[in-house]
TrEMBL record:
InterPro entries: ADH-like_N, Chloroplast_QOR, ER, GroES-like_sf, NAD(P)-bd_dom_sf. It comes from the Bacteria. SMART domains: PKS_ER (SM00829). Residues 10-321 form the Enoyl reductase (ER) domain. This is Zinc-binding dehydrogenase. Gene3D superfamilies: Medium-chain alcohol dehydrogenases, catalytic domain, NAD(P)-binding Rossmann-like Domain. It comes from Micromonospora echinofusca. Pfam families: ADH_N (PF08240), ADH_zinc_N_2 (PF13602).
Amino acid sequence: MKAIVQDRYGPPEVLELADIDVPTPGDGEVLVQVRAAAVDPGVWHLTAGLPYAVRLGSGLRRPRNRVPGLDLAGVVVAVGRDVTAFAPGDEVFGAGRGSFAEYAVAPVGKIVRKPGNLTFAQAAAVPVSGQTALKAVRGAGRVRAEQQVLVIGAGGGVGSFAVQLARLAGAQVTGVCSAAKAELVRSLGAYEVIDYTRAEITDRGRRYDVIIDTAGNRPLGRLRQALRPKGTVVLVGGEASDGRWLQGFDRQLRALLLSPFVDGRLVPLVVGENATDLAVLAQLVEAGEIAPVMGDSYPLAAVADAIRHVKTGHALGKIVVTI
């Protein structure tokens, strides 16, 4: 099968298209013929092996998983032992292992059936970003009706879902994005948009009950200035520093240390993919209450270009790889 392979950490150029064997599903796993996958900032971090802290989980000297990629949507072609929830021919989406390939293995606890009103490309845009936003809004953020919610990075993969989920909860949502994405963010349910190239979140003197920061490049002090007493800041990822050991993730560590001593909650978000949250998102999508926002689409051979695009921080919605 054709697959993107990575034998060392580095820039996107280390990724190569190669012919490799089709993987075999183990116990509790299925083999999926991948129709579409997706790219997010986490893929860039794993490709580069930066910050070095990510190598503790992905392999110290070289990637433990030779084929990168997590988000996927496709068709089950084989099942492992003791798998009864899925059968060959089922259309599924979720998180797999090595999704930048024609075939990938996925644990049954991380996939669900694909909503019928989504294409494979649309479905691939949901799993990681959608579950991250769900945890940020309903979990860490505890967003409720009539709250004032600020979503920073509102036009990106996670941010676009967060705007929709916060609006669905009955909150008044303000989105922070570039002018080019403002119309999109309003269409997702934001009643106000701040163009970050012209104004800061503190310029208008407004304060928010919940701030969901998906951009990862604002100091904690500035976020706290925009926060109401007893409010919550949810930190999704970190891209603020060039340090090779922690990069922007040092902000998460500082938030953990600072949170017990300040008025308000500073919550670094930790997300793991699971079928329960994915099923919630599938139901919301099928009901037409939320929808994935797709940006540019790339063929499998151009995964490196897709990662470069995401690395700029200016991608619209979720970048998809069609296979």
